[in-house]
Amino acid sequence: MPVRAALTHDVVVTFERVFGMLRRVLPVDELSLTAASTLHRLELTGARRLTELAGLEGVTQPAMTQLVSRLERAGLAQRQADPQDGRVVLVEITDRGRDVMQRRREARTQRLNDLIATLDADDRTAIAAALPALHRLTELVPPTPRDEQ
Amino acid sequence: MPVRAALTHDVVVTFERVFGMLRRVLPVDELSLTAASTLHRLELTGARRLTELAGLEGVTQPAMTQLVSRLERAGLAQRQADPQDGRVVLVEITDRGRDVMQRRREARTQRLNDLIATLDADDRTAIAAALPALHRLTELVPPTPRDEQ
DNA sequence: TATTGTTATACTCTATAACTATA
DNA sequence: TATAGTTATAGAGTATAACAATA
To answer: How many domains, in total, are found in chain B?
Structure first.
């Protein structure tokens, strides 16, 4: 289907432009992409096993071990023992971690707000109208791609 | 303006979800974000000075020196002398660099295409309708934020 | 003296391989 | 013996500070 393929190409090019723009506009505020994504997941879903987090975030188990150690050192997450299985480490976000994520979202929103405010009403409407579709798009990805390997 | 602020908040949250989804779906294929962005810029605009690239990409001069060295080692870009000014290094993309970028875009398009194809027609239409607005949004960012410092 | 770029050094983040502890 | 996690080691990618070369 040529129409669909052309749309996809435009989507890829536009997403890459948006990526680049956000990378320059939004400060990393001390959290790596994986760190922020992991904390966000812990915020939404509660405690998770370390290996499970590694699979969900698409990094190796040693990488997640180190990320969790860094988050723990920064007071943003903490390890817990699993009473059922002595091998397992459960990871959960701390109150401070929630605060940091909250402030991060506010700072990013403020930055982007200045840009979006300069768009005309039609453009803002078009973006707003696409958000539900984009949200559904993100939900299409199998959440645990590594679990099947 | 509450409407506008609410929109921005939703945009930030959705963009972050899209970011995370793309990070898991699209393989990095050996190019870092900065490397891909730099090559893309060199593709579009031709040879640029090293310091200029550092400013455009939002990294320091030493970081760009090292990135260009890695790109050169991989055969994707090359340094050239500036005949007008002996201090200046001009960087340009190679034919192999263009090939790599082309294949990268094709691979990403193919991956995303599978996802987008599963959306319903209304969602695809909404996303397509938002692309021009998103493109304009990316153009709002001053291209060389570090030049003014 | 100012500008352009490189080198030196250090830290984060990632990977693979080898290891420890529990099941 | 298999699974969960950590430690060891190496490389990419970034920063700041010090340096060399050219203007």
So the answer is: 1
Place of tokens 């679990």: A147
Tell me: pLDDT of A146 over 50.
no
Contact B137 A126 (CB under 8 A): no
Residue nearest to nucleotide D3 (CA to C1'): A87
Tell me if A103 is assigned to some domain: yes
pLDDT digits (tens, 9 = 90+) for A38-81: 999 999 999 999 999 999 998 999 999 999 999 999 999 999 99
Q: Which domain holds residue A80?
A: 30-141
Q: Number of A:B CB contacts under 8 A?
A: 170
Spanning CA of B87 to C1' of D17, the rounded length in angstroms is: 21
Q: Express each pLDDT in B42-81 by its tens digit.
A: 999 999 999 999 999 989 999 999 999 999 999 999 999 9
Give burial (CB, 10 Å; 0-12/13-18/19+) of A87. Answer: exposed
CA gap B99, B148 in Å, rounded: 34
CA–CA separation, A60 vs A81, rounded Å?
Answer: 21
CA B45, distance to chain mean position in Å, is 13
- What is the per-residue pLDDT across B19-30, written as a single tens digit (0 to 9) for each? 777 777 776 667
Within window 66-125 on A, which residues have Cβ closer than 7 Å to strand D?
A: 66, 68-69, 79, 82, 85, 87-90
Helix (H, G, I), strand (E, B) or coil at A94: coil
